[in-house]
């Protein structure tokens, strides 16, 4: 069967993919790709693989690619960084039977890429890049694609894209930032460059940059005319981004951990990194659990930290008058329903367990203000059960019952 090219390749092999998960070092591993596919992603890339290491090291090949070959994980594009045409070809030949295309990374702006002379630091070496893409196009049984960053000058960016197309590139992903836009200088991606490239080439173009919500995806397609949109950071914070939903963090964390049980990554550091990213904002508040997540040495330990974070979020939502996700029907929200009649069913030991370490007022208030809020809102502060304010406040019972129901719901979900 002849190798499909350009738009035909995008329509047939990639099934007209519009929602794309970016190649992310140590973070777009199999478990994360499968989770993203469950929630709307139509095409995924592997993490960037180092071509030279891939060719010479069998363990690297096994841990970073062969152990993650999965029939559910298609369509899939494997990405390499390289600076030698022959080495790039050898690496690509080793994986072409297990993916739908090979991507050449020409966009990585990190210092390690500068030291290794690959990624975006090759963007001025057009003769070398032409040789690499042309050789791969001629010798591989699957298409060659490229991921680039833009130049300051739009015309130079367009010329760059046209050179890669002429050399044999069958799909181009354009990240609308320059090589200097990274870290604290990241800034906003320029979609005008992407739009100009899309108009100038005859191959499919994906856009990358400024994608945090599904509305960003639709707006990018409308403004630039690209065939698909790639997300990296947005996807890491919300793997349901392409679904157009924002589930509670703990739902995504728990689902990811379930996928990890079936498809464990080669190192636990991948899992830890994802949990830090998913729980990023919450961990700024709960520093004790942030430290614990950094120290635990097993997937089970990480899952337990995630469970504790979920419980704290649910309690906080209740205290702020919000709806506690996962709360069973009939659970009390303070101020709406009296719970005094049923207090004999509440286990005092359970109350002590749910109160946490008691070192911080859940309202982030001083002793006097906390007492006033507890009295006014008919809600107990767990910190009052111990030493936070060194005085007992038992004015309300709605908070206590909410804690009880959250715990009971967890037990029912766990089959206890």
What does this structure look like?
This protein has 19 helices and 9 strands. By secondary structure, the chain is α/β, with parallel strands linked by helices. Strands 1-2-4-5-6-7-8-9 form an 8-stranded parallel barrel, surrounded by 6 helices. Residues 323-360 and 375-407 have low confidence and may be disordered.
Given the structure, what is the number of helices?
A: 19
Cross-sheet strand order for the largest sheet: 1-2-4-5-6-7-8-9
Using DSSP, what is the number of strands?
Answer: 9
Q: Please estimate the helix content.
A: 40-55%
List keywords for this structure.
single chain; alpha/beta; 8-stranded parallel beta barrel; 47% helix; globular
Brief overview:
The chain has 416 residues and is an alpha/beta fold. It contains 19 helices and nine strands. The chain starts with 5 loop residues before the first helix and ends with a helix.
What's the layout of helices and strands?
Blueprint: H1 6-12, E1 19-21, H2 30-38, E2 43-45, E3 49-50, H3 51-56, H4 58-64, E4 76-81, H5 85-95, E5 101-106, H6 111-116, H7 126-139, E6 144-149, H8 154-167, E7 172-175, H9 191-200, E8 205-208, H10 214-224, E9 228-231, H11 233-237, H12 249-262, H13 268-278, H14 280-285, H15 287-295, H16 299-319, H17 348-354, H18 367-377, H19 398-413
Parallel strand pairs: 1-2, 1-9, 2-4, 3-4, 4-5, 5-6, 6-7, 7-8, 8-9
Helix pairs in contact: 2-12, 5-7, 7-8, 8-9, 12-13, 12-16, 16-19
């Amino acid at each position: 069967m002849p190798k499909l090219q350009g738009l035909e390749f995008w329509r047939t092999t990639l099934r007209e993919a519009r929602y794309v998960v970016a190649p992310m070092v140590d973070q777009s591993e199999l478990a994360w790709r499968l989770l993203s596919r469950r929630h709307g992603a139509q095409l995924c890339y592997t993490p960037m693989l180092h071509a030279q290491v891939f060719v010479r090291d069998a363990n690297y090949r096994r841990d970073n690619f062969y152990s993650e070959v999965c029939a559910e994980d298609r369509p899939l594009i494997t990405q390499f960084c390289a600076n030698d045409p022959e080495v790039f070809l050898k690496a690509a030949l080793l994986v072409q039977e297990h993916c739908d295309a090979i991507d050449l990374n020409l966009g990585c702006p990190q210092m390690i890429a500068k030291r290794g002379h690959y990624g975006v630091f090759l963007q001025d070496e057009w003769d070398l890049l032409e040789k690499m893409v042309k050789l791969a196009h001629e010798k591989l049984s699957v298409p060659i694609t490229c991921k680039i960053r833009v130049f300051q000058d739009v015309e130079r960016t367009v010329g760059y894209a046209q050179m890669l197309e002429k050399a044999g590139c069958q799909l181009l992903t354009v990240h609308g930032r320059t090589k200097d836009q990274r870290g604290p200088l990241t800034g906003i991606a320029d979609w005008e460059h992407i739009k100009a490239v899309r108009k100038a080439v005859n191959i499919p173009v994906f856009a990358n940059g400024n994608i945090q919500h599904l509305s960003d995806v639709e707006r990018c397609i409308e403004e630039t005319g690209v065939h698909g949109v790639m997300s990296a950071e947005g996807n890491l914070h919300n793997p349901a981004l392409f679904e157009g939903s924002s589930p509670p963090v703990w739902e995504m964390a728990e689902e990811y951990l379930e996928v990890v049980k079936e498809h464990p990554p080669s190192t636990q550091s991948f899992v830890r990194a994802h949990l830090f990213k998913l729980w990023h904002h919450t961990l700024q508040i709960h520093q004790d659990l942030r430290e614990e997540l950094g120290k635990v040495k097993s997937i089970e330990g990480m899952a337990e930290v995630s469970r504790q974070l979920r419980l704290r979020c649910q309690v906080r939502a209740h205290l702020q008058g919000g709806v506690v996700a996962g709360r069973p029907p009939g659970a009390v929200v303070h101020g709406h329903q009296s719970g005094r009649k049923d207090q004999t069913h509440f286990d005092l030991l359970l109350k002590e367990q749910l109160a946490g370490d008691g070192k911080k007022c859940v309202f982030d208030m001083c002793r006097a203000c906390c007492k006033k809020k507890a009295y006014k809102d008919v809600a107990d502060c767990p910190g009052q059960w111990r030493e936070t304010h060194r005085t007992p406040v038992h004015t309300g019972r709605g908070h206590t019952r909410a804690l009880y129901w959250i715990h009971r719901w967890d037990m029912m979900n766990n089959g206890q």
